[in-house]
Amino acid sequence: MDFHIPYLDIKALQRRFSQRDSEALQELQDLGIYIGGEPVTRFEMDYAQYCGTQFCIGTGNGLDALTIILRAEKQLGRLPENARILVPAHTYIATFLSITEAGMHPIPVDVHHLLITKDVVEKHLENVDAIVAVDIYGKLVDDEVYAFAKANHKPIYTDAAQSHGAKTSNGDRSGSRGMASAFSFYPTKNLGALGDAGAITTNDEELAVMARRMANYGRTSRFVNDMKGVNSRLDPLQASFLNNRLLFLDNDNKKRKKIAQVYMEQIENPKVKLPPADFLESNSIHVFPIFLEERDQFVAYLEDRGIQTNRHYAIPPHQQLAFKEFNDMSFPQTEYLHDSEVSLPCHPLLEDHEVQEIVIAINEYS
Ligand SMILES: Cc1ncc(COP(=O)(O)O)c(C=O)c1O
């Protein structure tokens, strides 16, 4: 189908960096850098500085980043074998998979509006060894949750795969809260590479050292391996592409927020539910979600008007066959979100008149 307003014009977004990207490829070929090297080190230093953390460790993708954090914590003796990890039911399946990949057990809990809250964590605290908070759609989990976990000596990690650059009201950046954070640089993310890429950020030196070893076959030095690790490296070409894009992240996020503001202020249709009133706060606006009972009909209506939408998501992890053990569980808010969510176009190249066209189309829907 031909859309005159696509959900995300990924080619146009990435094409902004074509010239610089070509130069980066040429440079790596000239220098003979294929694995690691200066572009990776530079990205790790710059991204750590950007997030306000001491350390950043590049990985092959976001799933690996979160898995490696958990495996490294187990290796350090901070999490037990078979640890029970509290995780929001409303997330992408990768969050659950990182926990099982690390040989641990997800303990899914429902969200309030979109995210886990202090109350939910408090209710399950005695039953879990640690918490993975997820900044879904780019919205940061409340500081209160981190403070509560800290006060109760429960490690808390962040799946920050969607929240690059988001800031709390105190000015703390995504990636700087909790014991460690995992990022994905999947091409469609706010900071996206041209292939798979990911990173871990942390202020904990022991964890940083262990995570780096874990991501490099578990090796201590060139010929010495005293634990089982994995191979999950940030590719130098992807690191170069990320270096080109990091400088533009803040500006891109500002543009996303401006569009989201228009949606929040101007969408008025009794059939359409907007995200919670505080949605714009502490948010990178990776996704702008609206919610409708008659989703399929609405999506078809927008498609007829040439407007493409997306879904985040349709089937929550606990209802997937991959997690049969949770299929009988019920998380009403999560299920409502997955049944009713429609993601609207919201990216830095969207023109004002396109945003207006989307608003008008939604307001005219009956
Ligand atoms: C919330 C969340 N967690 C984890 C991931 C996994 O990242 P990746 O695809 O880079 O492995 C993603 C991205 O797809 C995500 O959205």
TrEMBL record:
List the keywords (alphabetical). Aminotransferase, Pyridoxal phosphate, Transferase
InterPro entries listed in its UniProt record: DegT/StrS_aminotransferase, PyrdxlP-dep_Trfase, PyrdxlP-dep_Trfase_major, PyrdxlP-dep_Trfase_small
Q: What residues bear N6-(pyridoxal phosphate)lysine in this entry?
A: K189
Q: Which GO terms describe its biological process?
A: polysaccharide biosynthetic process
Task: Keyword check for Translocase, yes or no.
Answer: no
What residues sit in the active site?
K189 (proton acceptor)
| Molecular function per GO | pyridoxal phosphate binding; transaminase activity
Tell me one Pfam family matched here: DegT_DnrJ_EryC1
- Keyword Chaperone listed? The answer is no
Q: Which PANTHER family match?
A: 3-OXO-GLUCOSE-6-PHOSPHATE:GLUTAMATE AMINOTRANSFERASE, TRANSAMINASE
Give the similarity note: Belongs to the DegT/DnrJ/EryC1 family.
Q: What name does this protein carry?
A: DegT/DnrJ/EryC1/StrS family aminotransferase
The species is: Nonlabens agnitus
